[in-house]
Amino acid sequence: MDKFEKIDKEIKGYTQSKQPGSEREMDPKPIAEDEDYQAGGKLKGKVALITGGDSGIGRAVAILYAKEGADVAIGYYDETDDADNTVKRLEEIGVKAKSYAFDLKDVEQCKKLVTDVVTDFGKLNILVNNGGVQFPQEDFLDVTPEQIQTTFSTNIFGMMYLSQAAIPHLSEGDTIINTSSVTAYRGSDTLIDYSATKGAITAFTRSLAQHLAPKKIRVNSVAPGPIYTPLIPATFPAEKVEKHGQETALERRGQPSENAPAYVFLASKDSTYITGQAIHINGGDYISS
């Protein structure tokens, strides 16, 4: 039994009361850092901005970016303890790091975030649009206009606001990486508005990639499946948290550290001929053609 299977069996049913959730409250903690990862300086000299970088997949990506030599700015909503812990870890690795509280739904806050990062770090090379929320409903008729507005404003509108703010600071060889979801490809009967935003992210990625190709700025996405992040206990009832990921071909949930190398690949020179694409990390939850 490997470390991923071992921790999967240790996870029992529990919930959190507020989205997007706190990693500090999770027990056991997600695997954000894989000790077997061998860094190669692939992002040395780069500056990355990662939304939702305080916890979950965003935290794991921030750690690997730091190990690969990038200075890292993380945007987060209000999980200050998680953000502080992540910045502390990045600084231990030896890079410059800073966290910024902001609201993805607010265009002016998105603009200010990018301006502040460029001011504090001197430049911006990698934008990882990773922040998001989800609110399951068993009956689609129970999805309120307010829920739809919140989900779209957070998951796709904010991604567009940040990308617009970042593009003037990006140049040839720089990258944008968007976090989509397996639900964009297979759907979800209880996450209809969320799945719709993830489908929009997939189309946005493909379209923006075409738009920025003449500037040699690449745009790609990662589409995770069931991953053990704070969003899961903050979203689902305890019994679903305990069984999360068992329906996949690998019969377990994934860990944030299993996603992060794909974000390194897409940000580095290893992927110079890849744009407008999605990398699927879902344990066989959905196998695309």
Question: Could you describe the 3D structure shown?
Answer:
With 289 residues, the protein is α/β, with parallel strands linked by helices. It has a single domain (3-29, 41-281), classed as Rossmann fold (3-Layer(aba) Sandwich), CATH 3.40.50.720. Helices cover 39% and strands 12% of the residues. It has helices at 3-10, 56-67, 80-93, 107-121, 145-166, 183-186, 192-212, 238-243, 256-267; strands spanning 47-51, 71-76, 97-101, 126-129, 175-179, 218-224, 278-281. The chain has a seven-stranded parallel beta sheet, sandwiched between helices. Strand 4, helix 5 and strand 5 form a beta-alpha-beta unit. Helix 2 (56-67) runs parallel beside helix 3 (80-93). The protein starts with a helix and ends in an 8-residue tail after the last strand. The model has no long low-confidence stretch (mean pLDDT 96).
Annotate the secondary structure layout.
Blueprint: H1 3-10, E1 47-51, H2 56-67, E2 71-76, H3 80-93, E3 97-101, H4 107-121, E4 126-129, H5 145-166, E5 175-179, H6 183-186, H7 192-212, E6 218-224, H8 238-243, H9 256-267, E7 278-281
Parallel strand pairs: 1-2, 1-4, 2-3, 4-5, 5-6, 6-7
Helix pairs in contact: 2-3, 2-9, 4-5, 5-7
| β-strand amount | 5-15%
Give the helix level as a range of percent: 25-40%
Question: Any idea of the CATH class?
Answer: Alpha Beta
Report the radius of gyration as a whole number of Å: 18 Å
Shape: globular
Order of helices and strands: HEHEHEHEHEHHEHHE
Kindly report how far apart the N and C termini lie. 30 Å
Q: Main beta sheet: strand number and arrangement?
A: 7 strands, parallel
What's the β-strand tally?
7
Number of domains: 1
Poorly predicted regions are none
What strand line-up does the widest sheet have? 3-2-1-4-5-6-7
Count the DSSP helices: 9
The CATH architecture can be given as 3-Layer(aba) Sandwich
Organism: Macrococcus lamae
Region (Disordered): 1-34
Biased composition (Basic and acidic residues): 1-12, 21-32
Family: Belongs to the short-chain dehydrogenases/reductases (SDR) family.
